[in-house]
């Protein structure tokens, strides 16, 4: 049963018809008193709550009712329906335990998705209640249920994360993935997509740290011909490309406040306008975000919008650093060796038993990405088919050596890729993150530089003009 609480008869009627058409049993209440009477007699599966009743417009009545609902039915999902003027209040409602907030006027499909997601998550919580915290399923059992082909590891923390991924993937819940650089956030995002109902539709990746604020709208929402000097043709943005699929917004903590506002609007209304166009377009996407920054601290400092934080954070998944699951290091190393022996046509390549055991104590602050680089560098520089501890020790470079102004590093102490990364970082520092000047000094185009900034995870704050 869905309980609709709103003083506006037209809204109650509209919502009742919408949900009855979708096969739901619906009850409605026009006041807090009527709502509490119904809630005292029955337990709804979900509640749609307006924040204002009668002539009251402050939202105080709605917030008080939400508190009372939480005491009476602490686990029943509540979706707040609000106008733009009370979004700050809606965020307060999220802090009190509301599942989502929908702005008026709403889109029926978006509202139905929000209700469906809340119900699916509520059902999962009810199913998990009998035991306080079930043990993680085995890796074999998870693989029988889900597609986790590209994720390597058997650590209990990882298995618990994969269980969560398996549960939430079929929903449309927005997900925030956190963790240090190199922990595999993109792989988890892709696993969510591959195990979702949207898997046959696009999975679009966007590194927000590699997009300047001046290009933000064009990249995410597209542009029409003539929108700016270089706009020779119409161009679809990333949201349009991801329609009916999933969009993965990596490094969301790097967005400036102005861009955060623009992103928030499309996430709330599911509509956007291409740059240079006044025509609104509707989009149906599942949003997954990732960051290696502490967004809660940024919210407290005022550098990240609180309403955006709650919009992207219905489900949060934190990935542990590799040092927190050392038993998975040998498994990952063997996985990389297996791939590399095919790439470099060395069919007899393998790790020695001693090297496999030694891997567990390997210090890799750069996590999985750094481990992959260490293994590949060792494969490239070693002539042995069986890789021993000494092969890795000779080729491990814990802290990349800085390139001196007048002296190049010795051959074998640094890869070409590392030299490129260091040169780009030096140029970014020298030109104070001015992308156009950096690109000119390196002899490449701005777009080629953006690709490299994304590749190496290099971020910058100042605008490119």
UniProtKB/TrEMBL annotation:
Gene3D superfamilies: 1.10.8.60, 3.40.50.2300, Homeodomain-like (1.10.10.60), P-loop containing nucleotide triphosphate hydrolases (3.40.50.300)
Any GO BP annotation: regulation of DNA-templated transcription
Bilayer-crossing regions: none
Residue ranges of domain Sigma-54 factor interaction in the record: 151-380
Keyword field: ATP-binding, Nucleotide-binding, Phosphoprotein, Transcription, Transcription regulation
Signal peptide: none
Highest taxon of source: Bacteria
Gene Ontology MF term list: ATP binding; sequence-specific DNA binding
Keyword Amino-acid biosynthesis: no
InterPro entries in alphabetical order: AAA+_ATPase, AAA_lid_NorR, CheY-like_superfamily, Homeodomain-like_sf, HTH_Fis, P-loop_NTPase, Sig_transdc_resp-reg_receiver, Sigma_54_int
Start and end residues of each Response regulatory domain: 1-119
Modified sites of kind 4-aspartylphosphate: 50
Hydrolase listed as a keyword: no
Name of the molecule in the record: Sigma-54-dependent Fis family transcriptional regulator
Species this protein is from: Persicitalea jodogahamensis
